[in-house]
Specification:
This protein is mainly α and 134 residues long. The protein folds into 2 domains: 2-87, Arc Repressor Mutant, subunit A (Orthogonal Bundle), CATH 1.10.10; 91-125, no CATH class. It has 6 helices and 3 strands, in the order ααβααββαα. A 3-stranded antiparallel beta sheet has the order 1-3-2. Strand 2 (74-79) and strand 3 form a beta hairpin. Helix 3 crosses helix 4 (58-70) and helix 5 packs antiparallel against helix 6 (114-125). The longest helix has 27 residues, at 2-28. It is flat. The N and C termini lie far apart (48 Å).
Length: 134
Amino acid sequence: MRKLVTVMMTHEREHDLYRLQAELCQTLADPTRLEILRLLEHGALPVKALSEATGQRQAKISQHLALLRQRQIVRGERFGAEVRYSLTDPRILDACRITREMLLDQLARQGTLAGMVATTSETVRGGVNTDADL
């Protein structure tokens, strides 16, 4: 009986972890948020710089950052009058790169965007990070 209870508790914990993982994936399921993460790869940036780099309004970027902060993917640190945002754990970029590489491989197999995929896949696999990588 004790073993059954332990197995059931482990299953419940595993289910909770799957739920949390799904929530993280939902958070990342937005092109603007993925672009923000890529921009933060090299260090902290304020909303204004993120807005200029993405071409999005500052209000929209702030909304995305609020969600990323809530999910503890980014953190904000005040420097004078501005808040600079940075990644809480850079491993999130590894997850983004892996999913992007998988997508590029799928597109290559389908023959979609063949020229771009071949170039980008070689760059990603070669370990060279370009602005197109994430």
